[in-house]
Amino acid sequence: MAFTKDALEKPDMNEESDKALSFDKGRSSPSFEARPMEFDYQSTTPCDPAVLAAMEPYWNQYWGNASSRHSRMGLHASAAVSLAREQLAAFLKIQPERLIFTSGATEANNLALLGHARARALELGRPGHLITLATEHHAVLDPLRQLQREGFRLTELRPGLDGLLSAEKLLQAFEKDTFLVSVMMANNEIGVVQPISELTGLCKERGVAFHSDLAQTFGHLPIDLNQLGLDFMSVSGHKLYGPKGIGALVISSEFSLMPLQWGGGQEQGLRPGTIPVPLVIGLVKAAELAMQDLHSRYHRLRELRNQLWEGLLEQIPNLIINGSMEQRLPNNLNFTVPGVRGNQLHRELRSYLSCSSGSACSRGAPSHVLLTLGRTPNEAEASLRMSLGRDTTSEEVVKAVRSITKVVNELRE
Ligand SMILES: Cc1ncc(COP(=O)(O)O)c(C=O)c1O
Questions:
Q1: Which residues share a beta bridge with 356?
Q2: Is residue 325 part of a domain?
Q3: Distance of CA 169 from the midpoint of ligand 1 (Å)
Q4: Which residues contact residue 382 at a Cβ distance below 8 angstroms, ignoring those fewer than 6 apart?
Q5: Which residues of the chain fall short of a pLDDT of 70?
Q6: Among 85, 90, 270, 286, which is most exposed with the fewest C-beta within 10 angstroms?
Q7: How far does the centroid of ligand 1 lie from the alpha carbon of residue 238, in Å?
Q8: Among candidate residues 245, 268, 292, the one where a domain is terminated
């Protein structure tokens, strides 16, 4: 739309759009009357109040540009970002210089994969071979497929029926010019946790760089980057009760990386642009909170998740678990309900609880992860990914079992 005087005179939001969105005016957020129980915490999480409090002064009290170190405000912002970087690096047991702040895990994945592949091709004078897993998030698959269009060769390995990639399978996939492998640590749909250090061990022996998307892992499982042997790793703020729009890439001191954009040289020139100081502070505060109760939360959520699964198995015949139950995030359950239509199942459940049939980014198609595990498109659609959050209670689990049983029984009649 052209920027005209008329446009300026229009109210910011006209009455029609006001009604359509049904905004609660006092709180400037859409109002929901009866809230279904939340079982979709792998899609995103609410910002923790302590995260909001930590970010607050950086919006308007300490509003400096972290790159403008000639001003007092700028110096303050710069010091806050440095401290935050050091803290996050300490959680990951790496040097702070290895951390590049990005807008989230999607950008971190793109920077690692496109940035390393293109840098490597420039060094070698030709593209080479890349390996990934067919069950990766689209934030990994799509940049790799872009590289394929640019002339790189890509192998998308199928995991076993339990969703896990064996070291033997990876070994067989190496080609003479394989230089990059990307395998996520914990899957966002089926929650399976890959044997990362076995896989990185094979890559180390061959001088192959290893990238892993830890968007669903960081803050949920203990991470020691050196033990895991990762070269590049991506994390996201909003999966761990931090703000949306911030994440980080851990870069390698050994493998080259070229930027995807150019500008003011921030983040070692690898991710130029003004650093979003409040979001950085929020990400690191969220990480700090996640570290504090990581172990107790792991056990509590695993128990609740098992209670959920055992409760469902007792009530509903023929459920099929998707992915390994043993090598799995504590907060994830993913199962198929044979004998019902997926769209009906999800529609009927919606008023009781929020969950999903796949990734929040799956664009409505049946889950590529479940299809890869051998589910039919109908089965994939009639599947539920249930993810538990910090505040999930045993009562909610009992209610969820009851609601799902009721809906499935009615649909199967
Ligand atoms: C495994 C995985 N990678 C990447 C992303 C995207 O992360 P972000 O929203 O921070 O870009 C998600 C979020 O759904 C995810 O689950």
A1: 385
A2: yes
A3: 26
A4: 336, 337, 338, 340, 341, 342, 345, 357
A5: 1-34, 358-364
A6: 90
A7: 9
A8: 292
- Looking at residue 226, its pLDDT comes to 85
Same domain, 66 and 211: yes
Choose which residue among 40, 47, 100, 137 to substitute to test ligand 1 binding: the one with the highest number of ligand atoms within 8 A of its C-beta: 137
How many Å separate Cα 367 from the centre of its chain?
16
Q: Is the CB of 407 under 6 A from ligand 1?
A: no
361 is catalytic: yes
* Cα maximum dimension of the chain: 72
- Contact in structure between 155 and 149 (CB atoms under 8 Å): no
Parent domain of 227: 52-292
CA–centroid distance, 255 to ligand 1, in Å, is 23
Residue nearest to atom 7 of ligand 1 (CA): 105
Determine how β-strand 153-157 pairs with β-strand 129-133: parallel
* Ligand 1 contacts CB of residue 137 (under 6 A): yes
Q: Which of 335, 371, 338 is nearest to 356 (CA)?
A: 335
pLDDT at 29: 52
Out of 187, 236, 240, 363, mutate this one to test ligand 1's pocket (max ligand atoms within 8 Å of CB): namely 236
289: number of Cβ within 10 Å: 19
Residue for token digits 């990059």? 180
Which of 277, 275, 256 minimizes the C-alpha distance to 265?
275
Residue 15 pLDDT: 42
Could you tell me if 254 and 284 lie in one domain?
yes
- The pTM (predicted TM-score) of the whole model is 0.92
Q: What is the structure's pLDDT at 8?
A: 46
Q: How many domains is the chain partitioned into structurally?
A: 2
For the chain, helix (H) and strand (E) counts, in that order, are 16, 14
CB distance 78 to ligand 1 below 6 Å: no
Indicate whether residue 396 lines ligand 1 (CB < 6 A): no
Same domain (yes/no): 276, 308: no
Gap from CA of 340 to ligand 1 centroid (Å)? 29
Q: Answer whether residue 281 is part of any domain.
A: yes
Q: Which two tokens stand for residue 220?
A: 């949920």
